[in-house]
Design a protein that fits this description.
289 residues; alpha/beta; six-stranded mixed β-sheet; elongated; Peripla_BP_I; Rossmann fold; 19% strand
Amino acid sequence: MGYQPNFFARTLSTPAQKQRSNLVAILVSDFSNPFQSYLFEVLSNTLQQHAKQPMLVNVKHEQDLDQAIMRLSGYQVDGVVAVAGSLAVEGFEQCLRLSLPLVTLGRADERGIISSVQTDNYQAGRLAAEHLLSLGLSKLGFVAGRNDGSASNERLLGFQHLITERLGEQALVLYANSYGYSAGFELAVRAIEAIRNLEGLFCASDALAMGVMDSCRNVSGIRVPEQLRIVGCDDVPQAAWQGYQLTTIAQPVGEIADTVMLKLNQIWQNQELAPTLTRLSPKLKVRRT
């Protein structure tokens, strides 16, 4: 007969009889980076497989965060997953005050107040450096993402530490101030001569790396990989496209989503003894570049 139960109506009960809404909000702060949409897709699928309904909230600025969280409390969401590496983790304490179960991605809470799931970005930087050094390269550079992006800063730290250990010097750092494709392309145009003097380049995201590659092809005439080796980070689906075949450091996205689901379940069942930080290992994915 086409009848569907009203899930919102089911939650209209007294506190003692409170039903779950099965809504889980996913807060995303930067869709200019295709990794965010890729991660949202995988998180959404995982939540749906566990009979949860994902709800996207796009938060562009830190000052919008409190209002967004207050709106979520009105929807009676069961939990919040914050994919917000460019936002200060302290801004999410409003969730805790409203008793909203919370897990953050992209930025760890070193104070141990909020549970977090992270790729080991320091290790990602070391993997990229190890790969480029194993090719016999010594003139290396790093393209940084957002200045306030903890992932970019941690990847740079791991990259620099291994290069300093092996070569006794540091890599050249170029600042794109974003994780997006256009930022990578424009940076490579501005820094043509600096990049021309390099043998290997590690980019803080795949989108940056693909922008740099297209700039090399269409503007500077630098041949990749013959003159310049490029390594990205994230392993978004576009990295495997034939036009790029980008060597990259892959984030364990499926494992991240599963771990988020595990943490939320522990919070819902009162099994989480204390907020925890989980760091998951990335892997090198060698392709053409």
